[in-house]
Amino acid sequence: MADAALYASADRLFARKRLISFGLPALVLVYLAYVFFAFDIPGLAERARMDNARVLVSDAWSYKTHVTQDNRSGELTVAIEGERKGTYAPGTEPDWVTPDAAGTRVDLGEGHVVVFDPAGGFRYDVPGFGLIVAHLDGRNVTSNLPEEVPDWISASRTRLQVHTEAGRVSLTRNKTELFRYFPGWELFFFTLESPYHGHGLSEILFGDRLDLARSNLAGAWHDFWQNNMWRHADVAWALFETILMAFLGTFGAAIVALPLAFLSAKNFAPLVALRFATRRVFDFLRGVDGLIWTIVLSRAFGPGPLTGSLAILLTDTGTFGKLFSEALENVDGKQIEGVSSTGAKPLQRYRFGVIPQITPVLISQLFYYLESNTRSATIIGAITGGGIGLLLTQAMITQKDWEEVSYYIVLVVLMVMAMDSLSGWLRRKLISGA
Amino acid sequence: MTHADPTFDTRAHYMALMARKRLYGGLVLAVFVALMASGFMLADERNAGGFWRGLPHVFDFPADVIADTAPKLDQLPGHLLTYFPALVETINIAAVSTLIGAALAMVLSLLSTRGLARWPRLIPLFRRTMDIMRAVPEIVIALVLIFILGGGPVPAMIAIAFHTAGALGKLFSEVNENADLKPVEGLQSVGATWFQRMWLGVVPQVSPNYFSYALLRFEINIRASAILGFVGAGGIGYELKNAMSWGQGKFDEAAAIFILLFATIVVFDQLSSHIRNAMIAKKGGH
Asked: What residue ranges do the domains of chain A occupy?
């Protein structure tokens, strides 16, 4: 009989286990299936712009130099990324471009040679394919290409584009343009007008003076820091601003929350009504959330780091208030009794009986939030306009400076990781020291 | 033997030690106060509007919102209903990204815990991977993916799941370190594969802690998904951005969204802390 009862209870137990171990995953799967359709994931492939992805990836690790001929005036410009800031002065073109009034010759390497037609057009000798000759005929573009062209050539009545692995040449009525791709980030250290452009590190450190007015090190540092394409000084400032927002927000919130936490802790609250009220204030501050605080505050204070720090401060006052009051409720009464038995006044009781008990909890929470707020400050900066978040969104909006976007992403990740190790180190240092 | 030394004054020594400790404490405090003050001044200077100039206007925007909403109070329930689907989308983004993130975190954390790892030599690799995943702010991935995939919930979901995997992975691996290895050894002795050892030996021990951390993350992710909506991913944040852009006089819809968002955060905050407390109580009862 006993056996039967045991079997029965074991069976029930197994049935329950089976239900949980199969039912729960089934539930999750059903939910995921619902979301699969609610988010329209089948339609995603259609909406995805893979050409955007290609531009992004190739732009992130390479750059292109534009060689552009104005077909009306015959004027030739050679510019990195086609930007004015990266334009080569006439006579200083890179050696693969040979300007010539009779037809500029561009060597793309590996046998690819393009010769511009000063009247508009080009001759491109593609190895393994043959010579492509294109020129302008009034408003139209004509070429020696047959009707059927390979997919790396796109031809229409007004436009011809040849895209090989060596580069890209296009011809329209207005201009003949050539892109040549290079790996790396262009002009990262020095812009073209800097005398240090194209010189190696050892040359700058140990070589002769490149600019007679300045010492190499000072000059190179100045030109690097003031590089007007990558704006290293501004980026460093933006990173600092982001960390500043996190710092002010986190520690400001702690300063505000600590006294309030005493009011809302069960064992310290002077009045039940006051305790209830402070609790609701904490809940409200937390519930409104950083996003709404950012919007509200940026209306009053305008965009900038102050708005961001205040938004973090308000949200985290709620969080810290809750955490600190929980820590206060868990303090050991014996220490306080001990301190008061020596005749300590209330303030001294708090100082020597309570604070030492909660400091480790406090510090570890503070530094944990400092790190996480560095991330929040990046996000809030993107909304309210401050710090690296702003630079990131600005670079994204142009939809072409992907090398800058990837640079900022790397910097943000490094910044957060540095803050993570710094706050971990400080936490260990302060807790063991206390 | 300083203590036996008759000239050694214990009391004076103690007082000197205390004085030095107090000095250091005071110095740290002074540096901290100086940093806070100068940081505040710097931030104030860099801001478009100053702190003292802006302070009287803090309540201008809430007042505008209330002024716009009050005469159209009868329309408010309608607005709440209109934006409810967007709210559901925001919650769905948070829930799915927590699920996916937690699943990834589970695998990553098991692979990076000493004693449990499938490939012990690769532990540092998985740890670094988690560190990097944790360090990437959601907005970075979301903005890049919005460029490729277009606006909508999927970029936000992927971005939050990525960060969640890193953040939870670290917490999970701390939980794993405390797991009892005996069941794992037992399973190994009967020839269980790595997956079986983990699934049957470790996961049952750690799942309550996993669950509680994941619940906390879910709460954080609801906020994150609302914010990501504001920069172009779908959900209530996106609707909020649109409602805000209609400008003054039409803030009643924004008010409805504020109410929805606030209520959601408070409800999930209370719900998750209630469940976690109940779990702790249940554990303590056994």
From this structure: 65-183, 232-433
Check CB contact of A434 with chain B, cutoff 8 Å: no
Identify whether B264 is part of a domain. yes
Strand order in the sheet with A121-126: A97-98, A105-109, A112-116, A121-126, A130-137, A140-143
CB A387 within 8 A of CB A305: yes
Is any Cβ of chain A less than 8 angstroms from the Cβ of B204?
no
Residue B129 contacts A where some CB pair is shorter than 8 Å:
no
Task: Render the burial of A370-389: b for 16+ CB within 10 Å, e for the rest.
Answer: bbbbbbbbbbbbbbbbbbbb
Examine the domain organization and report whether B249 and B168 are in the same domain: yes
**Contact call for residues A380 and A312 (beta carbons, < 8 A):** yes
A31 → chain B, closest CA residue: B96
- Could you tell me if B57 lies within 8 Å of chain A, comparing CB atoms? yes
pTM beyond cutoff 0.90: no
- φ and ψ at residue A106, rounded to 5 degrees: -120, 125
In chain A, which residues have their Cβ closer than 8 Å to the Cβ of B47? 301-307, 386
Chain A CB within 8 Å of residue B31 CB: no
Neighbouring C-alpha atoms within 13 Å toward the C-beta of A49: 13
**Closest to A292 (Cβ–Cβ): which among B47, B57, B258?**
B258
B159 part of a folded domain: yes
Q: Write the residue in B54, B134, B150 that is nearest to A49 by C-beta.
A: B150
Provide the CATH number for the domain formed by A232-433 in this structure.
1.10.3720.10
Do B103 and B229 lie in a common domain?
Answer: yes
Q: Could you tell me how many CB contacts below 8 A there are between chain A and chain B?
A: 175
Q: Residues, chain B, total?
A: 286
CB B160 within 8 A of CB B96: no
Which residue among B39, B223, B244 sits closest to A244, beta carbon to beta carbon?
A: B39
pLDDT by residue for chain A (434 residues), tens only, comes to: 578 889 999 999 888 888 887 888 899 899 999 988 888 888 887 877 887 788 777 777 888 888 888 888 878 888 887 777 778 887 778 888 888 877 888 888 788 888 888 888 888 888 888 888 888 887 788 888 887 888 888 888 888 888 888 888 888 888 888 888 888 777 777 777 777 777 777 777 777 777 767 777 777 788 788 877 788 888 999 999 999 999 999 999 999 999 899 888 888 877 888 898 999 999 899 888 888 898 888 888 888 899 999 999 999 999 999 899 988 888 888 888 888 888 888 888 888 888 888 888 888 889 889 988 999 999 998 888 788 999 988 888 877 778 888 889 999 999 999 998 998 888 888 777 54
DSSP at A326:
H
Q: Is residue B5 part of a domain?
A: no
Which residue from A minimizes the CA distance to B255?
A292
Cβ of B148 and A49 within 8 Å? yes
Q: Is B192 on the interface with A (CB under 8 A)?
A: no
Residue B277 counted as domain residue: yes
Residues B97 and B203 placed together within one structural domain of the fold = yes
Domain match, B73 and B47 both? no
